[in-house]
C-alpha cells in the first residue's frame, strides 16, 4: 500500500461521520471515550464504512486531545484513548487494504462559541501529545480536520512537518462558501497550507454538498498537492430537542461525480453522513480516474466600501487623546416613562459633557432598549451616545445583528462588556448567554471596520467603530489584573472604561501598572458620587466590582449623622477627580439614581480644572 501513489492515480473514497452517527444512536457524551468502554461499537462503524466502499477510514480521535477531553474529566486518558482508537481501526481494516488516517480536530473556532478559546501554546502541547500516539502506533496519514482558525491549522501543520514525513491531509472549515472565518479566500488559504507541506488540502464540515461544490469551483488544481472534500449531510435541525441531519442519499450520489470533476482526490463525508451516504458517493462516480484539468470559476469579490463620514465634530477617542474628556452614564428607565432620562441627557449635553453612555440592562435588570434610546439621543437631540453591549443577553446571531444595527444607526462608540450575572437581577432564573467573552466581542466589532462579518463574509461597507473595554481596578493585585487590559488591547480595544474607584491612591497605582506593562490606550476612570452612608455600604457589600475604603465609609457615616451626606459624597468625588486628572485625561461619571444634577456639578468641576490647565500653559 502506497497512499501517495494511489492518490496520483485515482480518486479515493473516505468514510463519513463518527460522532453524529453515535449521537443518532443515543450517545451524548465523549465519543472518543467509547474507544475504551464500547470498542465493539467503534469497530462496527468502521466496518460499516469499509463495507460501503470506503478506501479510507479515520480513527475515532477527533476530540481525543487534552483540551477537549478535559471537559469530561478525561484529560489523563489521552494516550489510552488514542492508542485504543488506532488499534480498533486496524482491527476493522485488517485484510481489506483500507488506509487508516489518524484524525486530529481543530480546537478553536466556531464548534462551540461558548467555550473559551485555548491559548496557542496550550494547543501546541495538546497537539504534540496526540500526534505522538499516532507516530508511536502507526497510521497511514494524519488528517487535520474542522479547522475554522487558519492560524491554528498552520501552527500545528508546521509542528507536524517538523516531526514526520507521513502524508498529511489539511482541511479547513468555512461558514460561507469559499471564504474563511478571517475573510481569506479559500484558494489563498489552501496555497498557504501547501507551502507548509500539506500533501492534500481540502474542506470539511458545516456546509452541505452544494456549497462545498461551489467552493471547489473557485479552487484550481495544484501541482504539489491534491484536493479533498468532506461535506455535511445537510444543515442540522432540532426535533424534540435532538439534532437531526436529513439528506437523501440519492442527492449525495449525484455529488460523487461532481466532486471528481472539481478535482477532488479524496471524497468523504462529515456531520450527519452515514455508511449509506458513502455508498452513494462511490456509486455516483462515473470513474475513479482523476481529472487533470478543470475550469476555475472566478471569485466574485465584494470589496467593502468606505462609508462617508456623516458625523460632525471630533470623535470621542480623538478628544481623550488631547484633553480632559467627560463621559456620563445614564441608566435607561425601567418603565415606559423616559421623560427624566431625556431631560437629564439634554441638561448634561448643555453642560458640555463629551458623551452620554447608556448601560445594557445593568445589574441584570430589564430596562428600555439602550439601542432605542441611543438612536433617539443621536437623531432627535443631536447628542453623542456611547452604547454598552453585553455578552450576557445576546447570542452570537443576535450580537451580529445588533452590531450591524449600530452601524446603520450611526452608533459607532461601543463599550463591550460581559454584563452582570442574571442571578443578581429581577429574573434570577433567566439564562445568561455568553456565546462570546468580552474580549471576543471587541474582536468581532472591530472586524466590522474591515467590512467583514464574524463568518468572514463581506458586509459591503466598512464600519467606523471605536470600541471600549471594561476594567475593574478594585482588585488586590493590580499588576496582575492589568494583563486583562493587555489582552483586550490585543483584541482591538481602543480605550478602557473602569468601574468607579473610591481610593485616591488607586489612580497612581493604576498609572504605574500601565506604564510597567507598556499600555498607552486612553482610560476613562470611573467616579460615582455617594448619596448616603447606606448607599456607600450597599455599593461596598453588595455590588460586584465596587470596593470602598474604610476611610470613605467612615466619612459617609459621620456625614450622615450630621445631616450633610450629599455634600460629603460630592467632596469625596471631587478628591477622586483631582487624583485622576493628575494621571489620566478620561473621567467617567456614573449618575446615581438619575441624579443628573450631581453629574453636572461634577462635570463643571472637571471643566474648571481643564480651563485652569489651559491657562497655566
TrEMBL record:
<dbReference type="Pfam" id="PF02219">
    <property type="entry name" value="MTHFR"/>
</dbReference>
<dbReference type="InterPro" id="IPR003171">
    <property type="entry name" value="Mehydrof_redctse-like"/>
</dbReference>
<keyword id="KW-0808">Transferase</keyword>
<keyword id="KW-0274">FAD</keyword>
<dbReference type="GO" id="GO:0046872">
    <property type="term" value="F:metal ion binding"/>
</dbReference>
<keyword id="KW-0560">Oxidoreductase</keyword>
<feature type="binding site">
    <location>
        <position position="270"/>
    </location>
    <ligand>
        <name>Zn(2+)</name>
    </ligand>
</feature>
<dbReference type="GO" id="GO:0006555">
    <property type="term" value="P:methionine metabolic process"/>
</dbReference>
<comment type="pathway">
    <text>One-carbon metabolism; tetrahydrofolate interconversion.</text>
</comment>
<feature type="binding site">
    <location>
        <position position="205"/>
    </location>
    <ligand>
        <name>Zn(2+)</name>
    </ligand>
</feature>
<dbReference type="GO" id="GO:0004489">
    <property type="term" value="F:methylenetetrahydrofolate reductase [NAD(P)H] activity"/>
</dbReference>
<keyword id="KW-0285">Flavoprotein</keyword>
<protein>
    <submittedName>
        <fullName>Lin1786 protein</fullName>
    </submittedName>
</protein>
<feature type="binding site">
    <location>
        <position position="271"/>
    </location>
    <ligand>
        <name>Zn(2+)</name>
    </ligand>
</feature>
<keyword id="KW-0862">Zinc</keyword>
<dbReference type="InterPro" id="IPR029041">
    <property type="entry name" value="FAD-linked_oxidoreductase-like"/>
</dbReference>
<dbReference type="GO" id="GO:0035999">
    <property type="term" value="P:tetrahydrofolate interconversion"/>
</dbReference>
<dbReference type="GO" id="GO:0008168">
    <property type="term" value="F:methyltransferase activity"/>
</dbReference>
<feature type="domain" description="Hcy-binding">
    <location>
        <begin position="1"/>
        <end position="285"/>
    </location>
</feature>
<dbReference type="GO" id="GO:0032259">
    <property type="term" value="P:methylation"/>
</dbReference>
<dbReference type="InterPro" id="IPR003726">
    <property type="entry name" value="HCY_dom"/>
</dbReference>
<keyword id="KW-0479">Metal-binding</keyword>
<dbReference type="Pfam" id="PF02574">
    <property type="entry name" value="S-methyl_trans"/>
</dbReference>
<keyword id="KW-0489">Methyltransferase</keyword>
<dbReference type="InterPro" id="IPR036589">
    <property type="entry name" value="HCY_dom_sf"/>
</dbReference>
Amino acid at each position: 500500500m502506497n497512499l501517495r501513489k494511489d492518490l496520483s492515480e485515482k480518486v479515493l473514497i473516505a468514510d463519513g461521520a463518527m460522532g453524529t452517527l453515535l449521537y443518532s444512536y443515543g450517545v451524548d457524551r465523549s465519543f472518543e471515550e467509547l474507544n475504551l468502554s464500547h470498542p465493539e461499537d467503534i469497530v462496527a462503524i468502521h466496518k460499516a464504512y469499509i463495507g460501503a466502499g470506503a478506501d479510507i477510514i479515520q480513527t475515532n480521535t477527533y476530540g481525543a486531545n487534552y483540551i477537549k477531553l478535559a471537559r469530561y474529566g478525561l484529560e489523563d486518558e489521552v494516550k489510552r484513548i488514542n492508542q485504543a482508537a488506532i488499534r480498533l481501526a486496524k482491527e476493522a481494516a485488517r485484510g481489506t487494504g483500507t488506509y487508516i488516517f489518524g484524525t486530529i480536530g481543530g480546537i478553536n473556532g466556531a464548534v462551540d462559541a461558548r467555550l473559551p478559546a485555548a491559548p496557542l501554546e496550550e494547543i501546541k502541547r495538546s497537539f504534540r501529545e496526540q500526534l505522538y500516539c499516532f507516530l508511536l502506533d502507526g497510521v497511514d496519514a494524519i488528517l487535520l480536520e474542522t479547522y475554522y482558525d487558519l492560524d491554528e491549522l498552520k501552527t500545528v501543520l508546521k509542528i507536524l512537518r517538523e516531526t514526520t514525513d507521513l502524508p498529511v491531509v489539511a482541511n479547513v472549515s468555512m461558514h460561507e462558501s469559499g471564504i474563511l472565518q478571517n475573510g481569506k479566500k479559500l484558494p489563498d488559504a489552501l496555497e498557504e497550507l501547501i507551502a507548509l507541506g500539506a500533501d492534500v488540502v481540502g474542506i470539511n464540515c458545516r456546509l452541505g454538498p452544494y456549497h462545498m461544490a461551489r467552493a471547489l469551483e473557485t479552487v484550481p488544481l495544484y501541482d504539489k498537492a491534491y484536493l479533498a472534500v468532506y461535506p455535511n449531510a445537510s444543515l442540522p435541525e432540532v426535533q424534540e430537542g435532538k439534532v437531526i441531519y436529513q439528506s437523501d442519499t440519492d442527492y449525495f450520489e449525484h455529488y460523487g461525480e461532481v466532486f471528481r470533476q472539481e478535482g477532488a482526490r479524496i471524497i468523504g463525508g462529515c456531520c450527519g453522513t452515514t455508511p449509506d451516504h458513502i455508498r452513494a458517493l462511490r456509486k455516483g462516480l462515473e470513474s475513479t480516474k482523476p481529472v487533470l484539468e478543470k475550469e476555475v470559476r472566478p471569485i466574485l469579490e465584494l470589496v467593502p466600501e468606505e462609508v462617508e463620514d456623516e458625523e460632525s465634530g471630533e470623535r470621542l477617542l480623538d478628544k481623550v487623546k488631547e484633553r480632559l474628556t467627560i463621559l456620563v452614564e445614564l441608566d435607561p428607565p425601567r418603565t415606559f416613562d423616559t421623560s427624566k432620562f431625556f431631560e437629564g441627557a439634554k441638561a448634561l449635553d448643555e453642560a458640555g459633557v463629551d458623551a452620554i453612555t447608556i448601560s445594557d440592562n445593568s445589574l441584570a435588570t430589564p430596562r428600555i432598549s439602550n439601542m432605542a434610546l441611543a438612536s433617539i439621543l443621536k437623531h432627535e437631540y443631536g447628542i453623542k451616545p456611547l452604547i454598552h453591549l453585553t455578552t450576557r443577553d445576546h447570542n452570537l446571531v443576535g450580537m451580529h445583528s445588533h452590531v450591524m444595527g449600530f452601524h446603520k444607526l450611526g452608533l459607532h462608540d461601543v463599550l463591550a462588556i460581559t454584563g452582570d450575572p442574571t442571578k443578581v437581577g429581577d429574573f434570577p432564573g433567566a439564562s445568561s448567554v455568553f456565546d462570546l467573552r468580552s474580549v471576543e466581542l471587541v474582536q468581532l466589532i472591530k472586524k466590522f471596520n474591515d467590512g467583514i462579518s464574524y463568518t468572514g463574509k463581506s458586509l459591503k461597507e466598512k464600519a467606523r467603530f471605536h470600541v471600549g473595554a471594561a476594567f475593574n481596578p478594585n482588585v488586590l493585585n493590580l499588576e496582575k489584573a492589568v494583563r486583562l487590559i493587555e489582552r483586550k488591547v490585543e483584541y482591538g480595544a481602543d480605550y478602557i472604561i473602569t468601574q468607579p474607584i473610591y481610593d485616591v491612591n488607586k489612580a497612581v497605582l493604576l498609572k504605574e501598572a500601565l506604564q510597567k506593562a507598556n499600555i498607552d490606550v486612553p482610560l476613562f476612570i470611573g467616579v460615582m458620587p455617594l448619596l448616603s452612608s447606606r448607599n456607600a455600604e450597599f455599593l461596598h457589600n453588595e455590588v460586584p466590582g465596587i470596593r470602598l475604603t474604610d476611610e470613605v465609609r467612615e466619612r459617609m457615616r459621620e456625614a450622615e449623622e450630621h445631616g450633610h451626606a450629599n455634600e460629603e459624597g460630592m467632596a469625596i468625588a471631587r478628591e477622586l477627580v483631582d487624583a485622576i486628572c493628575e494621571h489620566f485625561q478620561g473621567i467617567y461619571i456614573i449618575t446615581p439614581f438619575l441624579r443628573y444634577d450631581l453629574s453636572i456639578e461634577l462635570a463643571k468641576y472637571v471643566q474648571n480644572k481643564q480651563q485652569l490647565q489651559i491657562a497655566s500653559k
